[in-house]
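Okay, can you check this protein?
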Amino acid sequence: MGNTETARTAVGVIGNVISFGLFLSPVPTFVKIWKQKSVQAFKPDPYVATFLNCLLWVFYGMPFVKPDSLLVLSINAVGLVIESIYIAIFILHSDWPKRRKIFIALSVEVIFYAIIVVISMIALHGNGRINFVGILCLIFNIIMYASPLTVMRRVITTKSVKFMPFYLSLANFANGSIWFSYAFLKFDPWVLIPNGLGALSGAIQLILYATYYRTTNWDEEENPSQVEMSDSGNHV
């Protein structure tokens, strides 16, 4: 039992490091936005979605929801701060119509989150609370892990991996695999299922990269919206 807990803690720490790297993966995009003082064709959607995802996982990791999940809580709390910074930069360099959409989306997310917290704390207890919050985390994590599907479809269509960076695909695979292992050591289906799918998604991306690397035209013109999709990493 002690060995299992030690292994789980070690795996969770490694998962925190990998997830932290994924949270930082959009930094080049925001450096570009900051320097040009314009969001150009970039979209805030991945960051607004990740913000809610982190909120849910932070709540899931609380001792009164899912005990012994401090490492899940800690990395998503860090992610919440990072995503807040991304969104703040986006708001700062957007025109009013884009800002308005971001404010509306964030308001809806906060209201939704507040409803989840109230229902969980007042109406649910024990396993009922864990399962309710866990199912929501599962749903939103699967949605986030499905986001690279559009990029993968483009790779197959164009036979080019220009807009699917290798290191991000590798990091997604490693992130899904390590958190899958973490959840397996002390069975937690709500962490295990989405990250198992994430590991599978990352593996498929790596296979596509190996398959189409030689047919890629590396001089192809870069499209900001495609870079945006590539930058949106997935996390616990």
The chain has one domain: 2-231.
